[in-house]
What we know:
By secondary structure, the protein is mainly α. The protein has helices spanning about 5-10, 15-25, 30-40, 45-55.
Amino acid sequence: MSGRTDSIDREQGQITARDIELELEISRRELTGYCHRTLGSAFPPSSAGRSFSTSSC
């Protein structure tokens, strides 16, 4: 979390769903890339990649 929200949360002692949503939105691209690298993509390889592999054999 950023320093801005950390200080607000410490003072108020509350975290709302909106606070979490905003923090995740800031990091969405990085988190998505991490998940794809860690878990693998849910989508099959592109047809361009398959045709390249086939043509090189």
